[in-house]
Amino acid sequence: MSKEKTAKIINKPKEIRLYERVMDVKDFCRVLTKHSDKVVFTYFDKKRQLHDVTYGEFLHKAKSLAAAFTKRGLEGKRIAIIGETSVNWMASYVAILSVGGVAIPLDKELEISVIEGFMESVDADALVYSSSFNSKFKNAMDAHSSLSCFIPMEPTEEELALSDKIIPLNTLYEEGAVEVAAGYEIPDVKNRDALAEFLFTSGTTGTSKCVMLSQKNIFSVVTSAAATVPFTPDDTIVSLLPIHHTYELACLLAGMDYGMHICINDSITHVLKNLQIFKPTGLVLVPLYIYTFYKRIWAEAKKTGRDKKLKLGITAARSLLKVGVDKRRDLFAEVLNSFGGRLEKIVCGGAALNPRMVEFFDTLGVSIYEGYGITECAPLTCVVPYFNRKYASVGPAVPCCQVRIHDGYENEKGFIEGEIQVKGDNVMLGYYNNPEATADAFTEDGWFRTGDVGYLDEDEYCFITGRLKTVIVLENGKNVFPEEIEEYLGNIETIAESAVIGRQAGSEVNLTALVFPDATKFPEGTTKEQMQEEIQKSINELNKTLPTYKHIKVVELRDTEFEKTTSRKIKRHLLK
Fold first, then answer.
1. How far apart are CA 67 and CA 237, in angstroms?
2. What does the pLDDT read at residue 412?
3. Phi, psi (rounded to 5 degrees) for 433
4. From residue 235, how far is each of 119, 269, 289 by CA, in Å?
5. Residues 478-511 pLDDT 10s
6. Residue 23, SS3 per DSSP
7. In which element (H, E) is residue 314 found?
């Protein structure tokens, strides 16, 4: 079969990347000193007053905390961090790595018993926590098997009275500042391959695996992100994603390597309001945010009677671009102003993004750059280059690793499709206390098995088509990846969310679409039955474009959104 050429978008010429390669945390802190007078973080206090922290001030905080950890005997210890994105969270993380410790970022949305179980499973020595967790660790203070030190970021008098194991973070800052004034310096990293971070995959203490990362893993990704993602030292971004996710953390560290300005969102309910305050030039998002923004743009246009004007603007913008005229910032000024007026680029990862979203935002003048990663790879493996993008691709491998397709077959496009495997400086040390799972995660020749399925095109750009674990095997032996069908369903405007499962019906397996309809796309008063009929018609039209074995045979409407993980992925194990 001849290979089908994939469409390219030549975005712009290559530019000199203004960043420094960092090898470890000591190197990272050296780079921060070069940005000393620039503002690194802007954040809201509890009264929603804004505060700035310069790179120099941040480095002093991290260095003071490292000195205090050393003085208190926490050098080289395992220290968990939990809470919202904050200067204190980031300073704690950098300080832990600086003293040769093991950082343990934890998901603040989990039940306290699960959080305590995770810390027990890795013998955590200490815990740094935000004010939202005050009073919640009393049980751990009394009975936890390994925790000997609790470090509240903003303790109340009641919190301080809970246990003599409590040391306020401000006390450590003050103690460490004395040591820094006396000449304390962050020590050299003795071994970049040593354990430096524990990350838990999604799940409970029984099903989650604990990923072990080294400083080499962490900072090879930071450097690769800085080398490939189209940000500059003059950019402003807003941190919207949970900080315990390695995707968000890696992007923030890369942003600091650039010397960028990072604004911290204080609430999911304030996102659009905060974007207008911070006026970002770039964002780091998961697809759910992009879909939400897309729906908000059209809902607002419809509400104000400007939807026809928006459609005409899209047609005009695309026609003008074909003759080399770019009027997008003028044509869509109103829409762009809702994001602060300066937004130019979005890096998107964490799940598959419908290519239609890339095309839509491109038309507005906002470029989306997709990437692909996995926790076990710290997490970045691929990213679409800013100078040569392809819709639906997550790009070629980043500089710190290689990507290959293993055990593949020739797909409909003429490319070999199979499991995506990775080898490089970003690949984890293994799973903690789980040699069997670690062995299963690697091939005999040392490549990490991602469990994702895809193919590489003629330019080594990676296209992801599904997950090995979710593949639906039909009665004729054909394999169907639900993610592919869900992408097609995402093009139907009356569908807000969907998931595809294989349901046994006698000797056959029926492809079944579970659909949460977008009620805003129907006239007021539309019944569920009418929505079902309309969506069924759209899916019938979709089926005509697909091979017979990929036809959706059953459509079931839901009354509520799908239950999701904290990284906003649908919990597939709950689908029935």
1. 30
2. 85
3. 55, 35
4. 37, 24, 20
5. 778 888 898 889 889 999 999 999 888 877 888 9
6. coil
7. helix 307-322
C-beta of residue 427 within 8 angstroms of C-beta of residue 375: no
Where in 286-390 does DSSP place strands (E)? 345-348, 367-373, 380-383
Whole-number Å distance between alpha carbons of 344 and 412: 35
> How many other CB atoms are there within 10 angstroms of residue 349's CB atom?
26
The pLDDT value recorded for residue 386 is 87
Report d(CA 43, CA 267) in Å as an integer.
Answer: 11
Strand intervals (E) in 335-441: 345-348, 367-373, 380-383, 401-410, 416-424, 430-431
Placement of tokens 């304390």 in the chain: 184
- As a whole number of angstroms, the distance between CA 22 and CA 226 comes to 10
Q: For residue 361, give every residue at least 6 positions away whose Cβ sits within 8 Å of its Cβ, in sequence order, or none.
A: 290, 294, 346, 367, 368
d(CA 464, CA 287): 15
Measured in degrees and rounded to the nearest 5, phi and psi for residue 517 equal -70, 155
Outline where 35-162 has alpha helix (H): 55-71, 87-98, 112-121, 138-143, 157-160
Report the C-alpha gap between 562 and 288 in whole angstroms. 12
pLDDT digits (tens, 9 = 90+) for 398-446: 999 999 999 888 988 899 999 999 999 999 999 999 999 999 999 999 9
Do 453 and 419 contact (CB within 8 A), yes or no? yes
- Please give the Cα distance from 340 to 501 (Å, whole number): 40
Say which residues have a Cβ less than 8 Å from residue 448's Cβ, sequence separation at least 6. 376, 377, 421, 422, 423, 427, 428, 441, 442
- Residue corresponding to tokens 């310069």: 54
Q: Where are the alpha helices (DSSP H) in 454-551?
A: 482-489, 528-543
The one-letter amino acid at 66: A
Question: Beta strand pairing status for 39-44 and 50-54?
Answer: antiparallel
User: What are φ and ψ of residue 189, in 5° steps?
Assistant: -80, 120
For 319, the enclosing helix (H) or strand (E) is: helix 307-322
Q: How many residues does the chain have?
A: 576
User: In which residue ranges of the chain is pLDDT below 50?
Assistant: 1-2
Distance between CA atoms of 119 and 140, rounded to whole angstroms? Answer: 10
Decide: 398 and 380 in contact? Cβ < 8 Å: yes
Strand order across the 430-431 sheet: 149-152, 126-129, 78-82, 102-106, 195-200, 210-214, 430-431
Q: For residues 208 and 222, give the distance between their C-alpha atoms in angstroms, rounded to a whole number.
A: 25
Residue from 428, 482, 431, 427 nearest 453 by CA: 482
Whether 356 and 378 have beta carbons less than 8 Å apart is answered as: no
Amino acid code (one letter) for 241: L
Cα 518 to Cα 515: distance, rounded to the nearest angstrom: 9
pTM of the model: 0.88
Phi, psi for 508 (deg, rounded to 5): -100, 160
pLDDT of res. 1: 45
